[in-house]
Amino acid sequence: MAGPIQDIDENDIIVTHAKSYAAGVPAVLVSLQRGMEQMGPVRTARTLMKLNQRKGFDCPGCAWPETPGHRKHAEFCENGAKAVAEEATTRTVTPDFFAAHPVSELLGKTDYWLGQQGRLTHPMVLRPGADHYVPIGWDAAFTLIADELRTLTSPHEAVFYTSGRTSNEAAFVYQLMIRAFGTNNMPDCSNMCHESSGTALVETIGIGKGSVSVPDLEHADLILIAGQNPGTNHPRMLSTLEKSKGNGARVIAINPLPEAGLLRFKDPQKVHGVVGDGVQIADEFLQIRIGGDQALFQGLGRLLLEAEDRSPGTVLDREFIDTHCAGFEDYAAHIRQVDMDTVLAATGLTFEQIQDTADALIASKKTIICWAMGLTQQTHGVATIQDAVNLLLMQGMIGKRGAGVCPVRGHSNVQGDRTMGIWEKMPESFLAALDTEFGIRSPREHGLDAVDSIRAMRDGTASVFMGMGGNFVSATPDTEVTEAALRKCALTVQVSTKLNRSHLVTGRTGLILPSLGRTDKDLQNGRKQQVTVEDSMSMVHLSRGGLTPASEHLRSEVAIVCGLAQTLFGPDHPVPWPEFSVDYARIRDSIARVIPGFADFNTKVRGPDGFGLPHPPRDERRFETHTGKANFTVNDLSWLPVPDGRLMLQTMRSHDQYNTTIYGLDDRYRGIKNGRRVLFVNESDLETFGYAAGDRVDLISEWQAADGTVQERRANDFRLVPYPTPVGNVAAYYPETNPLVPLDHVARKSNTPVSKAILIRLQRRP
Ligand SMILES: Nc1nc2c(c(=O)[nH]1)N[C@H]1C(S)=C(S)[C@@H](COP(=O)(O)OP(=O)(O)OC[C@H]3O[C@@H](n4cnc5c(=O)[nH]c(N)nc54)[C@H](O)[C@@H]3O)O[C@H]1N2
Ligand SMILES: Nc1nc2c(c(=O)[nH]1)N[C@H]1C(S)=C(S)[C@@H](COP(=O)(O)OP(=O)(O)OC[C@H]3O[C@@H](n4cnc5c(=O)[nH]c(N)nc54)[C@H](O)[C@@H]3O)O[C@H]1N2
Ligand SMILES: [Mo]
Fold it and tell me: Tens digits of per-residue pLDDT, 535-548?
């Protein structure tokens, strides 16, 4: 099914109006249509039946868990189906493709066009000075990488990126190879994603993972959903929320945009979802200004304290605070001082809305706060999440059924990759256990995260880049700076399933190593291998692909790492690379000895729903923090006033993309078709700035650098679309807007790029 796919012509764009419900019949039709286009009827039927089933593979889409016990026959959603179609496509990118298309030409294509060409089939190399990739054998590729790594003066001159689709087994051997080589330079997509959540939660509750399960959500009284668009990015969460609602839960959505999935949901798998109006998900919609969430949480904290003053013993959970928490008095003293006028200005909400939300918290015996990128990708993301935790701690909402923190993860195994050691600053306990298991000496100095890796390549202190999945060039901020940084490298290596921009912006030598994906059958020495993943709620389960791979030259990520490690370290290395490579159960045996919670891994994971990892706050109200208690924190209030003549831009996903992978050109719920270069603007801002709907503008971001100078960055030619976003706040898609995000514009403490608050001005196109 190969063939040219039309690239985007922004002149064909169709702008209609935003929808007020998610899913329903169109979702089913789109799933089937994308499946048929990419893989034909047989593979469509085979894959969709196996998706998220006990004997099937884990959806390569989001990290939302399967409902334990009762999986539906087709446990999939529209966007899960698209993720599968994208990977299981029968279109291929072969050596002939690269012979026909020089890199210089491919650089002119969008990430959409590149991804639509199909699955990579052969290891390919771009030699110094060449404009065409040519085939290379696996052994030669490994030798090339190993030779380059050996010439480095220090192992810290190499950086090893991981995206969050990598299985536990592949992640474990990857970090092992990297540490055996001698560095902790392990940037990952999490650095750009939920790093703020991890940082905030480790300080406050002692573990960087969410504390709730699906049944907790189903039995909550009150669920706050802040900075998350589940209708698009975690569609199966809507079925869970529908159940919560059925059980009487109240849902409050906190978002600058009235996202369709937050308003109404028509479950495409139920009759009422197909014919009726669907279920209203959010009882309240707080249309908050970008970056106003910390102010909201602080304002709520103050209102809770005042309510407790009025009727002592009715609002706070004093016993929980006294037994399990530290720092309450300092927090209370601080939060009583919060100025409500500032809260109103920062949030753009009315006092009544905030009081109503406080009343809902007071009435609730079981509260859960869910969040995603709207909170994490902010300069004050860590503080915002900590103020959300403060609210929950006040009422004892951690470690009891139906209550807790719920950071909703992104990539399907991003949480598992972290558990497996993909982190630039793993604790001593992990490193010591790894060393004991393998007889190696892991480096102890912390490594580079994503932003610091870009700085190191830019400054010439790192010169080899390897990516285990992902699309580093397009996903990271400051596209021009990042591209220049990668081009300065001696070698860039991408282990990938699909073609993307990171294959085109290379070091002097560029390598593409094509790998199997989640849906592919993985045979090693004639024996079928399985991998494991961990979902957003710490459940670990098996995933088995069943499809015939796109080419006989593909290797699994595990085999690629083990093959490279053997070439790099030679035959006498203490790690049993050859055995690991052909028997993943052996990797799991090692994981069981190194990582707490994985004892009997190979047995436990065969249970019907896999097994859950320990979570001390959830399981026993135990908090492994520096105080040994759950910590209240005192955070200065930050918010984002928008100066005159400027706008605050958030960058987000359309309904038809997976991060930098653009599935198609239909952001159905927001009413945008056939194009992506749009800027969603409030009607009154259009008027203020003297524009009309459809006008075309360039976006210019303004950034005050450390030396006081104001730097400008541009992204050209966006169409203005009137949209119900708060005044002064605008929105556009990622990755088209990444050139606008300054590399130094990062969240305090977590170093996460601030993709949700970029100060811009508009310039009319000539
Ligand atoms: N189909 C599909 N599924 C995906 C992905 C995908 O691209 N496509 N990506 C995966 C990944 S890696 C991730 S991390 C998740 C991302 O899941 P989300 O976090 O839902 O993704 P975004 O599109 O970035 O949406 C951010 C939401 O936050 C809101 N927001 C922006 N700024 C603010 C703010 O200041 N305050 C508040 N309260 N809200 C704000 C936006 O309006 C938007 O609704 O989804 C995962 N699942
Ligand atoms: N402006 C802005 N920037 C952002 C964000 C934002 O909201 N706004 N979000 C950030 C977030 S939350 C994230 S998580 C990052 C995402 O950053 P990444 O994870 O780096 O990006 P993806 O687009 O998910 O990567 C897609 C590529 O992964 C490869 N791939 C897919 N499946 C597999 C597999 O099974 N194995 C291997 N080896 N390769 C595979 C394919 O080649 C595909 O082209 O982007 C971040 N960047
Ligand atoms: Mo993410």
Answer: 999 999 999 999 99
Q: Which ligand is nearest to the Cα of residue 163, counting in written order?
A: 2
Of the listed ligands, the closest to the CA of 236 is 1
Query: What spacing in Å lies between the alpha carbon of 520 and ligand 2's midpoint?
Result: 19
Is any atom of ligand 1 closer than 6 Å to the C-beta of 31?
no
236-261 average pLDDT score = 93
- Residue showing tokens 């474990």: 172
C-alpha pair distances (Å), 498 with each of 86, 92, 554: 9, 9, 12
Q: How many angstroms separate the alpha carbon of residue 158 from the centre of ligand 1?
A: 31
Q: How big is the chain by its Cα radius of gyration, in Å?
A: 25
CATH class of 92-188+413-518+549-595: alpha beta
More confident residue, 353 or 2: 353
Decide if 483 contacts 505 (C-beta within 8 A). Answer: yes
Tens of pLDDT along 181-211?
999 999 999 999 999 999 999 999 999 999 9
Q: Is the CB of 229 inside a 6 Å radius of any atom of ligand 1?
A: yes
- CA 511–ligand 3 middle distance (angstroms): 25
Residues with CB under 6 A from ligand 2: 115, 163-165, 189, 192-193, 373, 377, 410-411, 468-472, 475, 495-498, 500, 515, 517-518, 557, 651, 658-661, 734, 737-738, 741, 755
Are 223 and 249 within 8 A, CB to CB?
yes
Would you tell me which CATH number, out of the four given (3.40.50.920, 2.40.40.20, 3.30.360.10, 3.40.50.720), belongs to the domain 647-764? 2.40.40.20
CATH for 195-407, among 3.40.1000.70, 3.40.228.10, 3.30.1460.10, 3.30.300.330? Answer: 3.40.228.10
pLDDT exceeds 90 at position 24? no
Mean pLDDT for the chain overall: 94
Calpha distance 350→525 (Å, rounded): 65
Task: Tell me the pLDDT band of 80, cut-offs 50, 70 and 90.
Answer: confident
- Label residues 93-114 b or e (16+ Cβ within 10 Å = b): bbbebbeebebeebeebebbbb
- Kindly state the tokens that stand for 331: 């927090």
Q: Which residue has the tokens 């480096």?
A: 443
What number is the average pLDDT over the span 581-587?
98
Sequence-distant (≥ 6) Cβ neighbours of residue 318 within 8 angstroms: none
Ligand 1 atom with minimal separation from the 725 CA: 42
**Per-residue confidence (pLDDT) for residue 589, from 0 to 100:** 98
Beta strands in 625-749 (DSSP E): 630-631, 647-652, 657-658, 661-662, 666-667, 672-673, 678-681, 696-704, 710-722, 729-733
- Tell how far the Cα of 180 is from the centroid of ligand 1, in angstroms: 36
Cα(273) to centroid(ligand 1), Å? 24
Ligand 2: atom nearest CA of 500 is 44
Tens of pLDDT, residues 716-730? 999 999 999 999 999
Helical residues (DSSP H) of 395-510, grouped into ranges: 414-419, 428-438, 450-458, 472-475, 479-487
Q: Which residues have C-beta under 5 Å from ligand 3, the single-atom ion?
A: 193, 410
Q: How far is the CA of 50 from the centre of ligand 3 (A)?
A: 25
Closest CA to 596 of 580, 616, 622, 579: 616
pLDDT of 76: 58
The residues near 273 (Cβ < 8 Å, ≥ 6 apart) are: 23, 24, 265, 266, 267
Segments making up each domain of the chain, as ranges: 19-87, 92-188+413-518+549-595, 195-407, 647-764
Residues with Cβ < 8 Å from 70, sequence gap 6 or more? none
**Strands 284-286, 250-254: parallel, antiparallel or unpaired by DSSP?**
parallel
- For residue 2, what pLDDT is reported? 46
Nearest residue to 492 via CA among 75, 743, 148: 148
Contacts of 39 (CB under 8 A, 6+ apart): 1, 47, 85, 88, 89, 90
Average pLDDT on 474-484 reads 98
